[in-house]
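Q: Start with the shorter request: fold the first protein.
A: Done. Sequence, then structure:
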Amino acid sequence: MEDQFKEFKEKAEAHLRWAYTNNHITIGELEDRLSRLYSTDSLSELTGLTGDLPPMPGSDDRRTGDTYQWERDRYDSIPRQRKRSQTFFAFMSGSGRKGQWAAPREINVIAFMGGVELDFRQASFPRGEDVVIKCVAVMGGVDITVPPGVTVSTSVFPFMGGCDNKTDAAGAGPHIEVQGLAFMGGIDIKTKK
């Protein structure tokens, strides 16, 4: 049993170093997790150190069910450079993001007589953090599409406009919070496979 635990520790250490090399965790997180790894004698704590990370290439660990509808293999193909925030601006035009992309922790959206479309169906989400979308729609529209399993909460003030959240009430996956103002404009949020 001791040899098997030592093997688990070695695999966990390799997984943590791989996660740091591929920008899934910071150097501070790596040092903290390695310190806890070297001092633990608990298998549950050991698995908790890597449970929030994508699997290393070649491992057979996959998430299934509603937690994430996309496969981890697809997650691994997404660029690692995650921005802290991103702004989409549409002035009598269109703007947006879809396909494979790394969603930042904060997204600012301004749609003035134009439209912004954000499609999260193939996006990766920051691990352990909510994505906050701050919207201002003035005589314009913001369309947000999420995959099944993602929970969306709204805190939008509609003034002669509207906000329609047609997503599942509670998913087991990431959480998106939509905040903002819809002035003679609209914010539409829906779940789609």
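Q: Next, the second protein, separately.
A: Sequence, then structure:
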Amino acid sequence: MEFLAQFHPKVIHFAVSLLIIYSLLEILGAILKNDFLRKTAHLILFLGVLSALGAVITGNQAKDAFDYWNKNSSDMVEMHETYATITLWFFAALLLVRTFLVLKKRFSLTLNYLFACLSIVGMFFVFQTGERGGKLVFEFGVGTQIKKQIMEGTTEPEHKDSIKTENDNKQIESK
């Protein structure tokens, strides 16, 4: 299923944006005591969890499709994967509990404040996941065509300083 790997850079942005929008709507719904915002937050949370699931699936495929891991990039992808999994499970749990409470007509304003606070915690997980994903691309070149070409020896980088290798990281650590 390497086919799915190519969609990770596209799918992940939906998950990030939807989960952030959910958090903002949850917070605004609580502060403004607005029922429409609370219902919209619930819908956006559902869509965010679905897109996060897609991001995790495509991300796992992208990890398996990339053959050029070194120690540092491998450690970073493991941290990225851990935070992505935590993010998915955290928001999925919020969705399940929130849906249960709404269906039982027990989702009160007090619980709305609690969910608003929890959504801020969730945004922290989204940030941590994205921070590590960004480093994988911008520091290690993971998933980029130029990195693949360099590793296969079919091209030389125009700016060798822009692509970190394991050797470069050892030199940096020794300084």
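Q: Describe the second briefly.
A: The chain has a mean pLDDT of 86. The first helix runs from residue 8 to 32.
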